[in-house]
Amino acid sequence: MAHPNAGNTGARTLNFNVGVLGHVDSGKTSLARALSSTASTAAFDKNPQSKERGITLDLGFSAFTVPLPEHLREACGERYDHLQFTLVDCPGHASLIRTIIGGAQIIDLMLLVVDIVKGMQTQTAECLLIGQLTCSHMVIILNKTDLLPDDKKQSAIDKMTKRMHKTLENTRFKGCPVIAVAAKPGGPEAPDTEEAQGIIELMQLLKAQAFLPHRDPSGCLLMAVDHCFSIRGQGTVITGTILQGALHVNDTLEIPALKVHTHIAVILKRIPSAMQGDRVGVCVTQFDPKLLERGLVCTPGSLSTLHAGIITVQKIEYYRGALCSRAKFHITIGHETVMARVSFFSRTSLSSQSEVPSSGSPSAEEATPDPFSFDWEFHYQEEYLTGKGETEGQEQEQWALLEFERPVTCPPLCLVIGSRLDSDIHSNTCRLAFHGKLLEGFEDKNYTETSLPRLKISKDKHKEGAVERVTDDYTVIGRNLFKKETNLQLFVGLKVTLSSGETGVIEGGFGQSGKIKIRVPEGLKEETKQLLSSSSKKKGKGGAKNEPSKEDDAKADSQPIAIHLNFKRYVYDPQKKMVQS
């Protein structure tokens, strides 16, 4: 059985993960096939549905190995003597964007494949956005040059290269290399006798672009599994890429989604261990391969299964819709995509200012501000706010609470992408809505009772009524502030302001119709008393039994003294208390 790590047995091989992304039918799988000399168990779309539709349905892996380039030999010293390019062929079909995001998180360099005849398409742009969030190096491949007429080929390549550089001008990939190839001349159905064009040059370019990725064997193991199958006589094999930490023969693995443990009996290629960035296959004991197709395995107890989480949030500028609180989005987190209800919030300006060190103090330079704290005061937002905040034109920092429809298993501080995958896949619109980083996770199923009350997110409330009459120099009766059925005891002690300038305190209800008694500690102004007494005299000139006429009632309603009640209520406070600053 061939495996990406199987070449050059005994050689020390540096693994370098290259993601092949692009629009459907741009020729990604043909390109990977042309580049590869080794096919892994997952390579080239074993999925029958994929063969039938002629598109990549899952992450295909394949690889080729070259002697370590000179510039890497200096960086690596004696540690490696070969460089292995593991090609991750991500699907380009629009409805499978969740699989692309899962693949992009394990990629060192991205190949963005563009059909030179069609140029940038909607999903090409989405792949570019995912690349910006997950990867720092990219090469653009202009594929299918065989479809261009010979006499116009070079000018078409030059024109598209120029257009690509212009597209990338304001991205992190500005100035990245662009190369033209024909990975499968004549198209996917053409016989294999036609030789691919530009592949040798592409391999040279990849060798030149390769760098020594940061690899850290410390910490807990986290491995992204892409395939699981059985081999007669050997048992169950799990293949995937190590995202963090390292694994060794005889290690115990946890499959957190299934809450089961298994042991590593042997690492394919007969090596004693593998570390972050390596693509490996391991034989495990007593595990049914049908239970796991893709997902995460880890050091036992190192991953959390969350019912909700708090993330930093930033809108993706190409997303055209509003980001509204209480709306549902597809959330890709770890290696899962799940629906979640999203609520946006930001810090209140008072709490933002109170904890910023002065620029002259040493702590202003040394202190790294916390990304989030339950001690802070937050303000609930009906939607994500676009535009600049108060601080010197900077983007306002915003967060979101995600409430998952089903529990998700993910590592701390992982990338989160929110999208609308139910949008029309054929429409020319970006479906990626926002991205962020997981800061806090809630593992308790009853998080709304146990954890959310710690989250001090408030909504500003305003009620307005009118002064009906004066009972003495220090007391007025107010109406239209509350409904008849309102529990007025909740509001006793809250301050109100009159439009005439006085400040009062709600003492309690008056009668049964929702009216209230307001105490004005400083006393009413003379002009206020005169205004209110003349208003009540007018009301007394009505019909029988001093009933005010409809005309007088209307006048009384439009009388100038209004009552204003401002307070805030914490969204997750189980007591629903009202607070005034």
UniProtKB/TrEMBL annotation:
UniProt main location, coarse: cytoplasm
Biological process, per Gene Ontology: selenocysteine incorporation
Cellular localisation: Cytoplasm; Nucleus
Keyword Magnesium annotated: no
Highest taxon listed in the record's lineage: Eukaryota
Catalytic reaction annotation: GTP + H2O = GDP + phosphate + H(+)
InterPro entries the record matches: eEFSec_C, eEFSec_III, EF-Tu_GTPase, P-loop_NTPase, T_Tr_GTP-bd_dom, Transl_B-barrel_sf
Reported cofactor(s): Mn(2+); Mg(2+)
Basic and acidic residues bias spans: 547-556
A GO molecular-function annotation: translation elongation factor activity
Residues of the Tr-type G domain: 13-214
Region (Disordered): 529-560
A UniProt-annotated Pfam family: eEFSec_4th
GO cellular component terms, A-Z: cytoplasm; nucleus
Record keyword Cytoplasm present: yes
UniProt entry keywords in alphabetical sequence: Cytoplasm, GTP-binding, Hydrolase, Methylation, Nucleotide-binding, Nucleus, Phosphoprotein, Protein biosynthesis
Function statement: Translation factor required for the incorporation of the rare amino acid selenocysteine encoded by UGA codons. Replaces the eRF1-eRF3-GTP ternary complex for the insertion of selenocysteine directed by the UGA codon. Insertion of selenocysteine at UGA codons is mediated by SECISBP2 and EEFSEC: SECISBP2 (1) specifically binds the SECIS sequence once the 80S ribosome encounters an in-frame UGA codon and (2) contacts the RPS27A/eS31 of the 40S ribosome before ribosome stalling.
Official protein name in the record: Selenocysteine-specific elongation factor
Originating species: Electrophorus electricus
